[in-house]
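Q: Now give one record:
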Amino acid sequence: MMDSIAQKEFVSTLRDRRFAVLSVLVLALLLAATLVGRASYRTLQQERQLAQGTVNEQFRNQPARHPHRVAHYGSFAFRPKSGLSLLDTGVDSFTGSAVYLEAHQQNSVNFSQAQQSGSLLRFGEMTVAFVLQLLVPLLIIFLCFGAFTQERETGTLKLLLSQGVTLRQVAWGKIWGYSQAVALVVTPALALAAALLFTGEEFSSGVDLVARLTLFVLGYGVYFFLIVVGAVVVSAKQASSRAALVTLLGFWILGCIILPKATANLGASLYPTTTKAQMDAEVHEEAQHGINGHDPQDKRSAELKAALLKKYGVDTEEKLPVSLAGLQMAAGEEYSAKVYQQHFAALNATYERQNRLSDWAGLLNPYQAIRPLSMGLAGSDFAHYVHFQQAAETYRYNLVQRLNQLQADMGYGDKERRLDASTWRQLPVFTYQAPPLRWVLPQLLLPIMALLLWAGLLSWLGLRLISKTPVA
């Protein structure tokens, strides 16, 4: 009997002109967002690959120079786009795409799309994730708000129950029928996205990408399911279709607009971040006078010189077999990198606490559970950004220290010397490998648990409420 009810709801939904118009509109937006996302991905990826190749060649083809000049000449690291970012751009538009790598300073990632776009970007981009997270739930609301109220208003609910069917069975039949209708709208866009991912030459398809896309689809499947169940439960508990629609729209506004903004503001208030100017001033102060304020740079340099003279058994700098300036540069780089790492770690920890507050809010709001899950699987969340930032810093530090070692090996009087141009071709260039799925999964356990908890509670508690609902 449940199958018959599901089939009846599915067929009735397809014949409903309102659903036809809304579903065509949502499907068109999904397909358009998929194609636009793919075009944007290709453009940005090609631009960044070209830029990375250009700066790598420029670095390799430098003329004969002193190593310290090369360290200050520096290079750039461009963050490549992840394959699934065509579905969910996440924070990529705001976190920047390139970082300048130079001696003595750890720079932040700059040149974000938000810096080069108008203020409308703050309202969100028309991505597949945007449509799935905000517009498809609206479609479900308009699809399901009359699930029980219309049956009650027309008197068909009593006739249905007179055939020996329980309210719980009716509810499950309707949920299954509506779920099929939603799948009919969403599946073509996701199928197109999968085809683009696994047939495009610009995408590095593999097991990891397949697993990410599979979890992406499953996550949204659970998200849509719990919204369908919630809408059916609200319809069963309301006296009229109008009241059910108003209630569901109120939940949508609260969950998708008010709560996310309120949570973000609360996080910023509870865990305020330092400004870039303030952090730069603190880093400069600690690098010059020591982290504890009692270890100035001049004292550290003098101690290093004394240790080297003692090590090589000489009494003047001129007799050292190595360049004192080069080793002082290496020691200073090690110390300043330590200072920068402490400040960037503190800053990132603050951002992570803000994000964790939003993640916990997913236990109260399913929208705030699917959003971090979607971004994490797409490789466009804050954790993936920090991974790139740390990879760029590791490359910068190792490169600068290698150049400092080249200077140290030149011996005394190195300031007037130059190394052959072929030296720079032997230095490694920056390459970035995005982390695998197993790296990000532990960070997504809370959103996954929140979604499953919502689906389980709504299925259990909601259906219990429906079974106790008066028929009249």
